[in-house]
Structure formats: structure tokens, C-alpha cells
Specification:
348 residues, alpha/beta, 11 strands, globular, homodimer
Chain lengths: 348, 348
């Protein structure tokens, strides 16, 4: 077989339904993709009984577990024998090629930066996610940063633009991604000082920068890449999720609690609604990528079940096949003057 | 008649459907509320033909119009004879009690601050809006700031909490509003420096502060007042609006373009859907309030039609009847040490 083999380190203990659903998802992915090997990091006595077939599966004992509420940096420093830290170490040491977790996002971020390691020249690794466009279902788009960095500087946002542009080209398959900046108005002088300066950096870059986008237009499908500071990017993403979940929940309640007429109607529209809801479904969307570190690291949501886990592992495999991290590294190394433009005294 | 009479200055030329829908809405409000007088500021030759009955209506000539795209501060400085500036002047001079506009938000904000005037002691007037809670339809909640201030300091956020608490008590009728801070995590050390410091100020205040709220929970109805910096508050509000509009639009397309079965079902569920959609309808929600200035100033959305205009004028009348601005002024005057707590050197 000429296909390249990849090893993916899986934090089997992170997530609301760990280890059961994580392991089941890992096995699904193993069955689906012939060229991956999976390392399951976790408490062997819990993980082993779940592995019904150990082909291309390795179980690596990790006695400790980082919980959802733990302070990230402390957690990875103290729990050296945790599934997350050991999985990150495997990536650092090169025995695995990429890292998957459904656990504590902050801890995964800390492990990515402090263990897997920041790509030299990248100021701040950040979280990228792929979102659907409702008006234009054939145009998924990427949003970066969705919450890795609470404080932002213009150069961080500028670098997010370049990193997310790579993702859009290599992973979403957009030839020349339209890049926009999430801001509170269309004009280039809108926003706070950080966004005004970031706008200028993006405008003067080689990116196909198309100006600001307001949060209201995010789902319209008018951009391939949306650059955001981590604080408002997080607010926008979570507002979208919360609104969609609330509306679908209320809609189904309305139909369920309605009169006979409404119930019958609900039954008839159900297949159409289901098809539509799947556009917004997490389980199809894959995970949030930590971009700017030395290997693919992808986080799926805490409540992920096996299908979401398997799809996210598929996404990681694709990141390995396209060698996106390698290409980012080569770009950053060879384009330092562009990637790290000179900035004012208050900037980094 | 013992009821107090109020005069409301209406910018008849602002908004996508001005002056027709603005004037029609003003006449509706005049018919509905006996104790209001309306001053219509605008181009007389356009406004007068629309006034079919001039009872409690005064038309005041304003030859200039501030357009939607104009730079706000420049616009109000240059267009002294515009409908907005003259209406704001009437409030400043006391010939009107409150100001309504559906036009350029930035210009209305500038007119509010520079003409109507900031309440002494209030650092930054800001925009407040009332939003529905989908999970808990009986619990509308207020969000402040939704975009007046792109740059924020902890003390601004703290003051927004106090101002919005007044609004929740006086206008929404909540006895002891639960106040939360929009932040990117639940723990008190989450967020950037501004939000970490604002959290402490709110926590140590007399408000019924209940900690942080994440954007995903906004529509759950778990707070009466949500304090936000203007940048991420704007991103959250617009993400909610955009998502709701996109989902309803796509839903109705799905039903319209579906097969016979889906179409029939759609027909049957329609009344239930309509009832539900009305919870999120702008036209029922009223306008965004500029709080922190010397009189009630309310902005309704640019695409407002007569019903939304009339409802917003009703909201202004209620602000006048409850004397919320007078009470805020008295509070700020008598509680300077609380309202303007001592802060560090980097603070205002």
C-alpha cells in the first residue's frame, strides 16, 4: 500500500461521554480510514474492555484525568500522567502525528502551546472552526479565533487571517478565499483601535481581503474566512449556537404541544426540518482546530458522541494528508518579513 | 384630565421608510396615547401631506437630512438644520421631553451625547435593548451596551450594570434584577483584563450580581440584565438576530420548496410557527435606548414600519411616565462615591 500511514493520539478520557463514546468513535474512524493508527491514552482498565478489535489500536496507560472545570495551565503542569498530557507528549516526541481531545478546551490549548509547541514566528496559536452558511449551504466558512485568546493585538488578528486562509484553501478547497474582519461596522474606521489597525494590516496584505463583516451577516455566506479577536469571536460563535439550539428546541416544543392540526403538520414537515437542522449539526461539522502549533490538534465539543468523534478524526486525517501544518511552517519560515510585519511601539 | 402631558420629538426623516412610515407610526401613537404630543421634524413639503389629522401634532421645518452612511460626529456638526439635530435641540431646550429616531444610529448617539447631553457622572452613555428569552418567554431581559462604545473600561461596564438595573426595575418590572456579565467563561478570572476587573466591580456592588454569562446561554432566560462591552455586545446581538432571521428564512424556503407532503404540513404548522416567530419579531420588541443622557432617547431599527414606530413611541412614553431618566439622575447625583468608585491609574 503506497498510502502514507498516520498515527493519531487520542485523549480517551476527555469529554462528557468519555471513555465510551470516544473509544467507539476512534474504532469507527479506524474502520473507515485504512491509513490511520490510533493511540488511545487513558485508564487501561476502563479503555481496554471497550476495544472490541485492536487492529491499528494501541492503548497507552494514563492514570490521571483532567476534568472539565480545572484551571488549564495548572492542570497540565500538575497532571503529568494525565491522558491529555501523555497524548501531547507523544506528538511532541514524534511517536504520534496529531492530537485529538473532547475534554477541557483550555487544557488542550495549554498542552498544544506548551507541549506540542508553537510554530516559531506565530505570535498566538488560536482556535479555528468551520461553520455552515445557511443562505448558501455550499459555502462553509472558517472563523478564527473563536476563543483561544481573550486579549488581542492587531498583529495577532493579521496572522489569524493568514493561518485561516491556509485552512480555507487546503481543507475547505477554496481557491482564493475571501477574507473579512468581524467588526461592528462596514467602514474601515469602525471598531476599537485593535480592529482599526488590524483592518489596515489585512488590507495591505497579499490576502484577498474584502473588508469588515458584521455579526449579523455571518451566516449569509459572504466570506470564506472571518478573522475575529478571540473574545468577540467566541461571543459570536456561541450566540449563533445558542440561538440555533433555542429555536430548534422551541420549534419542536411548539409542534409537540400544539393541537391536532399542528401535530399532524409537524409530522409532515419533519423530514424537511431534519434535513435542514443537519446543516447546523455539530456532529457533521467536525471540531475546532488549534492552528499555529507544530501538529494538527483538534478539539470536538464536550458532548460529542461516537459519530462526531469519528468525523473529527477524519478531519485530522485530512489535515495530515494535506500537510497543512507543514505548509504553514514552511510559509512562516520563508516569509518572516510578511508574516511578522514591523509594528508600532505598543504592538508585539 | 389629570394625566401628565409629554412632548416627543420625532426625527421624521430618519429610516428606510421615512418619512411615510415614521409619520404614520407617530399618528398611530398619537391616537393610542392621549397624553402625548408629537413634534415632527422634517421637510414640511414631504411631511405635511402625510398628516391627515393634526391633533397633538406639530410639524417643524428641518430642511436637511442626515443619511445612513454619514460619519456621525461630522454629520451633526455640519447639518445644523437637519431633522435629527433640530429634534435633539428641542429636547435640550426643554420644548420636548424625549427623542425618537429610526435613522443613523451613530448620529443619534452623537446628538444624544453632544446635544441632549450626558448625565454628569456617567462616563459613557450606551445602548440598551430588550430581548426575548426563548426558553422562558415570560422573562425578557436587557442587554447593555449593544454597540455605543467600541472601547471599554471596567468602570464603564460597572456603570452599565447600574443603569441597566434601573431599566429592568422601572421598565421591565423586575423587582430585584439578576445581573450577569457577558464573558467567555463562567469563572470570575475568565476574560481579558477589562472583564476580569469589571467582574470584581460588579461583584462588590449593591447589584444582585450573579457572575458571568456565556453568549450561548443568552436566550435561555437566566438573567434579567446582561452587561457587555459595546464591541462584543454588538457581536452577540447581531449574531442572534442574523441566526434567527437566517433560520426562519431557510425554514420557510424549505417548506415552500418541499414536496406536497411538506407543503401541506407547512400549511398546518404555520399558525404555530407564526406565534413563535412573533416572540423574536422586532416590531414587538421596541427600540434600543440610549441610557445615560439627560432625556429618553430611543432608536428603532432602520427598516421599521408604522407599527414598530408606534410601539417605540409607546416605549418612550413609558420611560417618561416612570421618570426613569429623572431617577437615574437623582441616583447618580446622590451616590457619586458608589457610581464612580476609585480605580487604578490606567482607569478612567
Amino acid at each position: 500500500m503506497s498510502e502514507k500511514q498516520f498515527t493519531i493520539a487520542v485523549d480517551a478520557m476527555g469529554g462528557d461521554f468519555a471513555p465510551e463514546e470516544i473509544v467507539a468513535g476512534a474504532l469507527m474512524a479506524r474502520d473507515k480510514y485504512e491509513n490511520i493508527k490510533i493511540q488511545l491514552f487513558g485508564q487501561t482498565e476502563k479503555v481496554k474492555p471497550l476495544v472490541t478489535n485492536d487492529q491499528r489500536i494501541e492503548i497507552i496507560e494514563a492514570p490521571e484525568v483532567i476534568e472539565m472545570g480545572e484551571e488549564p495551565v495548572k492542570a497540565i503542569r500538575r497532571k503529568k500522567e494525565s491522558s491529555l498530557v501523555l497524548a501531547a507528549n507523544a506528538v511532541k516526541e514524534g511517536t504520534a502525528d496529531a492530537l485529538f481531545s473532547a475534554g477541557n478546551t483550555g487544557a488542550l490549548l495549554a498542552a498544544s502551546i506548551f507541549i506540542v509547541g508553537r510554530i516559531p514566528g506565530v505570535k498566538r496559536p488560536a482556535l479555528l472552526t468551520v461553520l455552515p452558511s445557511i443562505k448558501n449551504p455550499k459555502r462553509p466558512w472558517v472563523l478564527m479565533d473563536v476563543g483561544a485568546n481573550a486579549e488581542s493585538k492587531p498583529t495577532y488578528l493579521y496572522q489569524f487571517g493568514i493561518l485561516a486562509d491556509f485552512y480555507s484553501r487546503k481543507m475547505v478547497g477554496v481557491e482564493k478565499p475571501e477574507v473579512k474582519l468581524l467588526n461592528n461596522g462596514a467602514e474601515e474606521d469602525k471598531g476599537d483601535q485593535v480592529h482599526i489597525a488590524a483592518h489596515q494590516l489585512l488590507k495591505n496584505s497579499d490576502l484577498n481581503f474584502q473588508g469588515n463583516i458584521e455579526a449579523r451577516e455571518l451566516l449569509d455566506g459572504s466570506a470564506d474566512v472571518v478573522v475575529a479577536d478571540g473574545f468577540s469571536g467566541n461571543a459570536a460563535l456561541k450566540s449563533i449556537e445558542g440561538t440555533a439550539l433555542n429555536i430548534f428546541g422551541a420549534l419542536s416544543d411548539t409542534i409537540k404541544n400544539g393541537g391536532l392540526r399542528t401535530k399532524l403538520g409537524g409530522l409532515l414537515v419533519k423530514p424537511a426540518l431534519k434535513k435542514f437542522a443537519s446543516v447546523l449539526d455539530y456532529n457533521n461539522a467536525g471540531g475546532a482546530v488549534i492552528l499555529g502549533v507544530n501538529a494538527p490538534v483538534v478539539k470536538t465539543h464536550g458532548s460529542a458522541k461516537r459519530l462526531a468523534v469519528s468525523n473529527t478524526i477524519g478531519q485530522i486525517r485530512e489535515m495530515l494528508e494535506t500537510n497543512i501544518v507543514g505548509e504553514v511552517k514552511a510559509y512562516v519560515e520563508n516569509n518572516d518579513a510578511t508574516f511578522n510585519p514591523p509594528v508600532g511601539e505598543n504592538e508585539e
